[in-house]
Write a structure and sequence with these properties.
Layout lengths: L2 E7 L3 H12 L6 E7 L4 H10 L7 E5 L7 H11 L4 E6 L2 E3 L3 H8 L4 E9 L2 H6 L2 H6 L5 H6 L6 H4 L5 H10 L11 E4 H6 L12 H11 L3 E13 L9 H17 L9 H4 L9
Parallel strand pairs: 1-2, 1-4, 2-3, 6-8
Antiparallel strand pairs: 4-7, 5-8, 6-7
Helix pairs in contact: 11-12
Length: 280
């Protein structure tokens, strides 16, 4: 089963480069990677042109013109051209632990989606991480992170727990699995069935809304928050918009109340034109 990895980005080439080296360090190798780019300027295109010959996995740049926050639209464009039957989603500020894709692949089951975990790093640690640190596994190593400015926390402790402890903790956790943009995976045909991401949504719960519709369609979330891990690089979030978040909340409330599983404005807008999608 081949994976398609979808990495979202917008004008964060420094962070994106660290993330792409994180996928170069993966122990699971049968995957393609699509950078779903919400209209970044030429710095991202130039970065990808420089990195692509150095990476051991196929990479495609799926881009559209920036017209405000349209993450859901570019995600659907990437899903439409993805070649894998199983898709993993993350953001361009999340460095994966080297076993991340292996864990998602090993735990993929029909009738479910997977929800992984994350550790948010302080800005000082985020800046210190180099390409060499990512390839060596330092960026997701407990001792290295502690030595480079990351405070002790329960989430940091996940970075040192072994597989047996992590499996047990995922079994007994009371936290419900949700579809999170930083670390989730699903079958492509399940995403098609619910019409992908709702393109009416802006920042604030857009990924969780997809998971809520998958649940309404009978696709159950499964917890990997202690086993499948990324570290989240810090940065400002200038795209927060209270009015848009309120609109998102209203749509999510309607999805919950009416048990809606298929969005009216989503992936089907891209599937018919997938052969000519703006990938570069």
């Amino acid at each position: 089963m081949r994976l398609s990895v979808v990495v979202t980005t917008y004008n964060q080439p420094e962070w994106l480069e660290k993330v792409l080296w994180g996928f170069e360090a993966q122990t699971f190798r049968d995957f393609e990677l699509l950078v779903a780019d919400d209209g970044s300027d030429d710095r991202t295109r130039e970065l990808l042109a420089r990195l692509t010959p150095q990476l051991g996995y196929p990479l495609r740049h799926v881009w559209h013109e920036h017209q405000g926050f349209r993450k859901c639209t570019i995600l659907n464009a990437a899903i439409a051209v993805a070649e894998g039957e199983y898709l993993f989603f993350t953001d361009g500020d999340c460095i994966p632990r080297p076993d991340l894709l292996l864990v998602h692949h090993a735990n993929a089951r029909r009738g479910s989606f997977l929800s992984g975990g994350y550790l948010k790093l302080p800005i000082e640690t985020s800046r210190l991480i180099t390409k060499e640190d990512v390839l060596a596994g330092n960026a997701t190593d407990y001792r290295w992170l502690r030595a480079h400015g990351t405070r002790r926390s329960r989430r940091l402790s996940r970075m040192r727990w072994g597989p047996l402890t992590s499996v047990l903790l995922d079994m007994i956790t009371t936290t419900a699995p949700t579809f999170n943009g930083h670390n989730s995976s699903a079958w492509r045909d399940d995403l098609v069935a619910v019409n992908g991401f709702d393109e009416r949504l802006e920042y604030g719960g857009l990924d969780r809304e997809l998971g809520e519709r998958l649940e309404n369609a009978g696709v159950r979330g499964r917890q990997l928050r202690h086993r499948a891990l990324v570290v989240h690089l810090d940065h400002p979030r200038g795209y927060r918009n209270a009015a848009a978040m309120a609109r998102n909340r209203a749509i999510r409330d309607e999805v919950a109340k009416l048990k809606i599983h298929r969005t009216p404005i989503g992936l089907d807008r891209h599937l018919g034109a997938a052969a000519g999608a703006p990938a570069r």
